[in-house]
Amino acid sequence: LTVQYNERVTTAPPHVDLDDLLTSWELHLRSRNLSPRTVQSYRESGDKLVAFLRRSAIAESAAALPRANLEAFITDQLANHKPATAAVRYRSIKQFVRWLLEEEEIGFDPMAKMTCPTIPDIPVDVIPDETLLALLATCQGNSFEDRRDLALFRMFIDTLLQTSGNGVIGTITSVAGQVLTMTVPNGAALALTIFVIGFIFL
Q1: Distance CA 72, CA 100 (A)
Q2: Which of 3, 110, 124, 186 is deepest in the core (most CB within 10 A)?
Q3: How confident is residue 193, by pLDDT bands cut at 50, 70 and 90?
Q4: Can you list the positions of beta strands (E) in 27-107?
Q5: For residues 183 and 193, is the Cβ–Cβ distance under 8 A?
Q6: Contacts of 98 (CB under 8 A, 6+ apart)
Q7: What 3-state class would DSSP assign to 75?
Q8: Half-sphere exposure (CA, 13 Å, Cβ side) for 176?
């Protein structure tokens, strides 16, 4: 009687270049229906990482992503770009590493104890009153465009509201004499802020 045992053979995962992994990750991001700009930003950060590893003569594979190499990459970004850009790179690569874990391309999270670069506060210069007056003087006509632009400029001056890519979305809730009250939603939290705009400014 001959008994044959089936032995389980464990082999190391094949070497996969980071370029190939980035392409697979990009397809994954697109399948999640993320915005094209988000996908572009993530992929750009991944390409920057590969370029850094290449310049540093480090093997461009998932095995080349220990914490020390990733921290060196972020340090390089801080040396050549603004802190905000380095922070974007950090967050993008963190998403890439998370995906690598899910795909079992790596066995641990090398960024588990890393922290995002600090973005210092940068003071914004105050626009002089003379400049604001000159700006408002360009909208003194009686056309629809002049009245529209004057109202928008005064709204921004009085409330210090900032525009996003889609502009400011608000609802006028009351008008009393020269004072206008507008409600603006604050992002995903759906909190509301009330702004009172007095057109007698300046």
Answers
A1: 19
A2: 110
A3: low
A4: none
A5: yes
A6: 109
A7: helix
A8: 5
Closest CA to 139 of 130, 131, 155, 150: 150
The partner residues of 181 in beta bridges, in order of sequence, read 174, 196
User: What is the C-alpha to C-alpha distance for residues 60 and 21, in angstroms, rounded to an integer?
Assistant: 10
Residue type, 74: I
Question: Residue length, the chain?
Answer: 202
Question: Do the Cβ atoms of 65 and 58 come closer than 8 Å?
Answer: no
Range with the poorest average pLDDT among 4-13, 67-76, 87-96, 129-138: 4-13
In which element (H, E) is residue 186 found? strand 179-186
Q: Which residue, chain included where needed, has tokens 């759906």?
A: 190
pLDDT digit string, tens, across residues 146-175: 888 887 787 777 766 665 544 555 555 555
Decide: 22 and 105 in contact? Cβ < 8 Å. Answer: no
Is residue 94 scored above 90 in pLDDT? Answer: yes
- Determine whether 46 is exposed, middle or buried from the number of CB atoms within 10 Å of its CB (0-12, 13-18, 19+): buried
Of residues 160 and 89, more confidently modeled? 89
What is the Cα–Cα distance from 25 to 64, expressed in whole angstroms? 17
